[in-house]
Amino acid sequence: MLHYKTHVLSPSHDWVVFLHGLGGNSSIWYKQIKDFRKHFNLLFIDLKGHGGSVDYKPELLQYTSEGLAEDVVNVLDFLSIKKAHFAGISLGTVVLHSLHIHAPHRIKSMVLGGAIIRFTKAARVLLKIGDLVKNFVPYMWLYKLFARILMPKKHHEHSRNLFIREAKKLCQKEFIRWYQFAFKVPAIYPKMDPEKHSIPKLYIMGNQDYMFIGPVLEDTAKDKDATVHVINNCGHVCNIEKDKEFNEVAINFFSDRIKLNPKEVSLPKTAREYVMTT
User: Fold this and answer.
1) Which of 91, 96, 131, 142 has its Cα between 20 and 30 A from that of 83?
2) Cα–Cα distance, 15 to 40 (Å, whole number)
3) Which GO terms describe its cellular component (predicted)?
4) Residue 143: which CATH number?
5) How much is the CA Rg of the chain, to the nearest whole Å?
6) How far is the C-alpha of 146 from the C-alpha of 163, rounded, in Å?
7) What is the pLDDT of residue 242?
8) Considering its fold, how many domains does the chain have in total?
9) Where are the alpha helices (DSSP H) in the chain?
10) What is the dihedral sign for C-alpha 272, 31, 106, 186?
């Protein structure tokens, strides 16, 4: 099972599940814990190959949308969480879209920061170049290059350096598996069926998230359950760079959903903060 951490407020409060981006781990949500734990029970999950999940299913040769969704559902099942709100950043939003497809009944609402729906022409060119050399150069060379391109400005430096530091904990094979999965990303969002599964979604994007904001603004316009909040003077990792605005907007969104819908909450096996590593 994937590694996770929880912060339990009470049995009567809703759950928010946090999913990080490529190269990060649950620690990238450190600016959300203080504000969110006042309102919700929190669950932070490390995706395959990241953080405490570094040795999870190392035999897998490739990752799939269904497999990633199943991994998250397994954690929910273990903790007896029937349904939750979700927050994702970057790659984590792709996993959330996968959950929307394969396990929509587990989702109350979704906040997607720095969301990745499809790639611009420039992003596709970068991916292709990286694909040609990924087996021959140290993965950190590619990661640092992409981080610099995605977050080029001076005020992006903190979030850029944080992800680079955490990415050093990945291994070459793990990076390659996720890199290969990136080519499947554009096919995931179109498989979502918002007409059949009505799930409230809030996309939070930095106006300087050049690679991804365009597709998000264009494609979500067709989804009646989706709204987009754009943060000015902000790049890709908006939960770190503009944490106060991100927190306020996301907490208000989740709180409004809770007021509109009946509660379906549950408490894990032990009502305390803990870490599960098996």
Assistant:
1) 91
2) 6
3) membrane
4) 3.40.50.1820
5) 17
6) 11
7) 97
8) 1
9) 30-36, 65-78, 91-102, 121-133, 139-150, 157-167, 172-182, 213-219, 238-241, 243-260
10) negative
